[in-house]
Amino acid sequence: MSQEGYIWSKTGTISMVHSIERMVGENRLQYLLNLYGISDCKETSTPLVRNEHLGPATGKEIESFKLLKVNFRSAFGSINYLSSATRPNLAHTVGSLLQYLEHPGIQEWKSFLHILQYLKGSQELSLLYPRNGKEGIIAYSDADWGNCKATGRSISSYLASFEGGLVIWKTRKHQSVSTSTAKSEYKSLCDLTSELLWLKQWTAEVGISNAQSPILIWNDNQSCINTANSDSNFNHKCMKHVHIQIHFVREAVQ
């Protein structure tokens, strides 16, 4: 057994750091590149084109995509699996594409191909789980207020690591419009808190004692932090619509 830890590779296989075993599924990415005719494509450094915001496809864009005769659901499923299993760096991009799964256009297809280009250039990236980590559970929450140009809804993102290895990650669009940055940030914090409470319960059930210490959550919004730690902003007009979430997070903090 390696003294450093374990790697969870792009294929979802656990293997020792110094003798990584290539198991079934190793050539999954190459298969996708060949399937969609871009095996010789250039690599990219980001999963989504910088400063690009996907929106609903126009009728012309939808018709242009249909001419390709590609099963977008099948294509999307291939990267959605990677995102949820071993690729947290795809979470935001996959979440953006998911919104247009019903009526994809040519732009969504180009974004999918861009993801494959990114994966081609980052095949060696893996999740590392140190054998003797001492950090406990550390979590981060954030929100991009009004990210969706079509609906004005915000995007929540959060992740949590245990002993230095990522164990939770998620990006999702809110179900309603947030009227302030504080409100959008607090929704993300509430979702993360639910995940962390489950994680603590599960680790307790399997006997992982070093996961039972108070969890450190990082957030960059001061209004959100103040609301979680005190009653000072409970009646603030920007927060009155999330009072149940406020109570839920405060109870977990206490």
From TrEMBL:
CDD domains: RNase_HI_RT_Ty1
Superkingdom of the source species: Eukaryota
PANTHER family: GAG-POL-RELATED RETROTRANSPOSON, INTEGRASE CATALYTIC DOMAIN-CONTAINING PROTEIN
Name used for this protein in its record: Reverse transcriptase Ty1/copia-type domain-containing protein
Organism field: Austropuccinia psidii MF-1
